[in-house]
Structures are given as C-alpha cells and as structure tokens.
UniProtKB/TrEMBL annotation:
Cell membrane found in the keyword field: yes
Keyword list, A-Z: Cell membrane, Membrane, Protein transport, Translocation, Transmembrane, Transmembrane helix, Transport
Protein's job: The SecYEG-SecDF-YajC-YidC holo-translocon (HTL) protein secretase/insertase is a supercomplex required for protein secretion, insertion of proteins into membranes, and assembly of membrane protein complexes. While the SecYEG complex is essential for assembly of a number of proteins and complexes, the SecDF-YajC-YidC subcomplex facilitates these functions.
Biological process (GO), any one: protein transport
Cellular localisation: Cell membrane
UniProt cross-references to Pfam families, sorted A to Z: YajC (PF02699)
Protein name, as recorded: Sec translocon accessory complex subunit YajC
Gene: yajC
Predominant cellular place of this UniProt entry's protein: membrane
Matching PANTHER family: SEC TRANSLOCON ACCESSORY COMPLEX SUBUNIT YAJC
Amino acid sequence: MFVTPAFAQAAGGGGAGGAFATFLPLILIFLIMYFLLIRPQQKKMKQHKQMVEALRRGDQIVTQGGLIGKISKVKDDEEVEVEIAENVRVRVVRHTIVQVLNKTEPAEKA
C-alpha cells in the first residue's frame, strides 16, 4: 500500500527532456505551417513584384478587376496608363496588375 522512497523519487524526475517533449508538437506544427503556407506565399509575392517591376510599354496585361488592356505609358513607380479600347486610356496602379498576357521584347540597342 505504501510507496517506497526509491520509487517515489524516480517518478518525478522529468527535467529538461520533459519540457522539450511538450513543445515538440508545437515546433512541428510551426514547421509544417512554414513550409506549406508561409514559404510559398513569400515566393509568390516575390514573383509578382518582379513581374510588376518588369512592365513596359506594349505589354498586354490583366488587372485584378478583369480588365484586359495594353500598356501605353509607364507613368512612374506606382502607376501605368493602360489602353483598354481604341482611344480609351485609364490609369492603373501597378500592384493591381495580376498577369502579363503578351510581353514585348526590349528594343535592340545599336
């Protein structure tokens, strides 16, 4: 009925190994979230940033709103002028451009 002193001392000695074991599932969940969600999102944002920086006159683009047009003028770092119909031009914020349909080649330097 009584617990011997040697058995009682051995039962409570978890120490640092026990603390690591309790945090191991949390660490694993964070690693899985990083590789399945965070890292691909960062990669996608980097590709979008490169695409937006590479825009130039003559590229045919699609905006987030679904408008398809051709870039007629690159105004500055934040906006471009897009021709959506003949003689119809609108200013579009660069970061709302989702896709480049037709990319124009840079002019040859002589």
